[in-house]
Predict the structure.
Amino acid sequence: RLQLSKGREDLVRLHPADIANIVEKLNIKQGSSLLRSLDKSTAAKVMEEVSPRIQKMLIQHLGSERAAVILEKMSMDELVDLIQLLPSRESQEIIEKLPAQKDIGKVKKILAYHENEAGGLMATEFISAQPHTTVSEVVEKIKRDSHQHRSIHFVYVVDEKKHYLGVASLRRLIIAEPGQTIKSIMKRSKRTPVVNVEQKVMEIAAIMTKYNLLSIAVVDNNRKLLGVVTVDDIMRHLMPNA
């Protein structure tokens, strides 16, 4: 029987990936108990790091109601990846028990895409702004909303109808004057690669490698911005058990 040498307060100081390794070494009953002992946000981060095979077993052991409490704190793309692992009946139960503040419409929309496509890989949480927005306004938005994002590499510039226009990097935001508009510092769409929502994971990986990108915009056939694929989304798909 594996004995944990750290108390729960010490345990939460570990990186979620390290706690996930501990969960994977426990049996399912013990792993489930450990997850339940953590606060919801930490448990969600740990669940994101657990291997897909163990994720599925943990969810089935926890039951849809208890699992939904943890899953509501997961990022949208990680949540969708996990739901895709489950049989249709169980996945539907999870979706039905997610709280109202979780955008179920977005979950279902991503589920409509194959997990090997940009639409199935993408995160729908990203920072966007319109061209006339000032740098100071965008910085305040990042401060206010940063807790909702795992990482922020770019601000994605869109028009009123959400059509993709380009990006502004965090570096450009930092060195710009507060009163400058995003339009004046952004890289326009002609100079920034994007991927179509139906492009395959290896094509996306090739484009991101060619242009040394940590994230890339996902658009539909009308150039409407739908989401963002990050390098960790690609790596998690290529090496799911890492």
In short: The first strand starts at residue 128 and ends at 129. Strands lie at 128-129, 154-158, 164-169, 187-188, 194-196, 215-219, 225-230. Residues 56 and 85 are 6 Å apart (CA to CA). The longest helix spans residues 52-62.
